[in-house]
Design a protein that fits this description.
Layout lengths: L2 H17 L9 H8 L3 H8 L7 H14 L5 H8 L4 E6 L5 H16 L3 E6 L5 H13 L4 E5 L18 E4 L8 E5 L1 H14 L6 E4 L5 H16 L8 E2 L4 H11 L7 E4 L2 H13 L9 E6 L12 E4 L2 H16 L7 E5 L2 E3 L9
Parallel strand pairs: 1-2, 1-3, 3-4, 4-5, 5-11, 6-7, 6-8, 8-9, 9-10
Antiparallel strand pairs: 10-12
Helix pairs in contact: 1-2, 2-3, 2-4, 6-12, 8-9, 10-11
Length: 355
């Protein structure tokens, strides 16, 4: 048998053995190299995406991988490279629009940079849960962490993140201690109040988010400051929990307030419930009461009437979070402090001049 015949027989043997499915044995890089007729080093270069392999050879190697069902050992590659190409994300609440859209934006931006995302939801925002989450992410082999911490947690003296972990925090008030990316909550709330006052409303009622929420607190503070600076007395605060149901309950209360002609709701979901309650009580929107939301969810333009709301650029928040954490990983001088993403008021049909 000549050399060519020997190589052909060896290749056929690899194919036959693998197709027969030898139980308990995994396909090795050497098997792929033998089937493709290249060196193991070439297979390694192809599986790691390195340049310098001509296209025909690359196709041969990929075809051999497919035929044999070869899966590169990502853990081994990570150890060799010193990184796992994975970003961990810790979040406390997956039910809110802001958190979900921020998470989606982070995943999209990470994928564009060639990174995967490992999500770790935390049920209770406590010190022990945060520390435990970081420990679990360490076991899951991630290169860095983005923490979506809407709640007042990192401002507490007893809470700290592991010093050796590269971290960027989204939606938090811990800017002096960590790198933080957030929407300009105050800018959006002030724009909402100013719009309603400019329409001639004597004051603006506020349907606030939950007390433990950093974003809700920022929006509430800006609402109160905007009214005070305009020489208006802030009416009693009404509080919800971000849900449409809490907005509906608040709306039933506000419908009985004859002096209430304008409401700024801290998110669009609560505004939706508010609109329903006011409608059921015979208060016309916007003829009797003007309503503004916050978030500009995709459905906001389909509310009845279409909702005037504050637009948040979640895609930009996600991009900056990923950019920031990659800069920290690469030691490119990312500093502590807060980066604010501007908001803008989107005017639709739920606001009108005061009756």
């Amino acid at each position: 048998m000549d050399t060519a015949d020997g190589a052909s027989a060896s290749t056929d043997r690899v194919r036959t053995e693998r197709r027969a499915g030898r139980r308990g044995q995994s396909v090795s890089m050497a098997d792929v190299a033998q089937l493709a007729g290249v060196s193991s080093q070439t297979v390694s270069r192809v599986s790691n995406g390195y340049a310098g392999v001509n296209e025909e050879t690359r196709r041969q190697v990929l075809a051999a991988m497919t035929e044999l069902g070869y899966r590169p050992n990502s853990a081994a590659r990570a150890l060799k490279r010193g990184e796992f190409r994975t970003i961990g994300v810790i979040t406390f609440n997956l039910s809110t629009t802001g958190n979900m859209r921020t998470l989606e934006a982070i995943a999209t931006s990470a994928a564009q940079e060639g990174y995967a995302v490992t999500l770790l939801p935390v049920a209770v925002p406590t010190h022990d849960e945060v520390r435990g989450a970081f420990s679990r992410l360490g076991e899951l082999a991630v290169d860095a962490v983005i923490a979506i911490m809407e709640v007042h947690l990192l401002d507490a003296a007893t809470i700290s993140l592991p010093p050796h972990v590269q971290v960027v925090v989204a939606d938090s008030d811990a800017g002096d201690r960590y790198s933080v990316v957030d929407t300009d909550q105050a800018m959006g709330a002030r724009a909402a109040v100013r719009h309603l006052l400019d329409l001639g409303h004597r004051t603006v009622w506020h349907l606030a988010g939950p007390e433990e929420s950093f974003a809700a607190q920022r929006r509430e503070d800006a609402w109160r400051a905007g009214l005070t600076e305009a020489g208006r007395v802030p009416p009693p605060l009404v509080r919800g929990d971000w849900s449409a149901e809490s907005g509906y309950r608040a709306g039933l209360r506000l419908a009985d307030e004859e002096a209430c002609t304008a409401v700024f709701a801290a998110n669009d979901q609560m505004a939706l419930g508010l609109l329903r309650a006011l409608h059921e009580r015979g208060r016309k929107i916007p003829d009797d009461v003007s309503v503004i939301g916050f978030d500009d969810i995709p459905e906001a333009g389909s509310f009845l009437p279409p909702l005037t709301t504050v637009h948040q650029d979640f895609a930009e928040v996600g991009r900056l979070c990923v950019e920031g954490v990659l800069r920290r990983m690469r030691h490119e001088g990312a500093e502590h402090g807060t980066t604010l993403v501007p908001t803008r008021l989107v005017v639709r049909d739920s606001t009108a001049p005061a009756p």
